[in-house]
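Sequence and fold:
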Amino acid sequence: MSRTIPRSPQDSPEAGQNSESVLSHGLKQRHLSMIALGGVIGAGLFVGSGVGIAAAGPAIVLLFMGTGALVMLIMRMLGEMSAARPSTGSFSVHAEEEIGSWAGTTSGWMYWLMLCAGVAAEATAAGTIMHSWVSFIPAYGWVALFMVFFCASNLTAVKNFGEFEFWFSAVKVAAIVAFLVLGLLGILGVFGSAPGTSHLTGHGGFFPTGVAGLAAGLLTTISGFAGLETVTIAAAESDNPSRNVARAVRTAVWRIAVFYIGSMAVVVTLVPWNDPKVAKDGPYVTVLDQLGIPAAGTIMQIVVLVALLSAMNANIYGSSRMAYSLVSRGQGPRFLGKVTRGVPAAAVLASCVFGFAAVIAGIVWPTTVFAWLLNIAGCSVLVVWSIVCLTQLKMRRRLERESPELLSVRMWGFPYLTWLALAAILGVFAVMAANADGRHQLIGTAVVVAVLAGAGHLKQRRDRQAAESA
């Protein structure tokens, strides 16, 4: 039996708490717009994309086109659901409402795990960069400083998170725009002879590594987009959730294509895909060096550091809000629901503690515990996106039937493009299953999903029995 779609931003499974436990609304439209943009511009693009280029060659452009198209569809689905029904738990709340507790529990805690693992990986990488500049402080010392700083900032008013993320994202966007302009000038021959198509068709051709290379590059491109969902979580703490998330999603969708696909096209046009520096130093540094830009390595290291700190900040925020939402719906330990001055302080601390524990695991057990955690986290985004597709299929039909006025953002080509996105995700799972490393990720992820879905199913049964006996 379906429930009526709430009409108020505060009317959600998380609501109904006293005023002291309600989250604040300190985020503005400018914050959300930059969070939406910055959320898809991270260290994975600046550095990790080099691994994808080395695996797939110039065909990485096609992979980013395909992955970018999938991401835009997911963003549109999230935008439709979050504009109609803003909620701190975003897709997890929607999944619980439309599919059941098991879906809300699975997607929510998988996303929390992914973000916390991301905090550990980003803190470790940021500490390494800082240690290379200030060597008398060990890398783990920088990690501890970053963790304490961002934990403290997230324990204060949400507007502080918004301001940090606004300026971090502004730096990343400016860096991408500058890179695209310089790259275009380089392609036109302003910095020397124009490369033409020599790097696109030479060195083995456009598909130099074949299907195997495309498969390896695909997994890299997928992971680069993880975290974009944070904007729909943050929207619930803005001054006008429905309007703001709609604008942020519309702004972000087309810029994803420009930033990702455009920058990859510039890289593979200007430098050989098999240049060892592309994977070692990163594609952006390699291109800037090729163009003769002074101090290219230092410039990009600064940008990468900003990207890492931005991701840490956003991941601590997103994981704490997701944990708070889950707990407020009875899907986690109650103590994590404590709110202090409009901030879920206990959830922030728990997310930071888990993230720091993962950092320690990376130092003590880098090839076992930490590798397993990162593998699960890397696959989590696909699980979340699958549930998003299934949820949107049900929620859209119910909205059209019960509250069509709430559809201020509509999924394109519904339901065909939603089914296409789901089929694409299943295709990625199939590609992973055909690869030895991918199979290990799938097996580990399947175990975690089974545990979470089982716990959610038990809660669903208890809730049903309680309702029947009432």
About this structure: Residues 9 and 86 are 5 Å apart (CA to CA). Confidence is low (pLDDT under 50) at residues 1-13, 15-20. The two ends are 17 Å apart (CA to CA). The chain is about 75% helix and 0% strand.
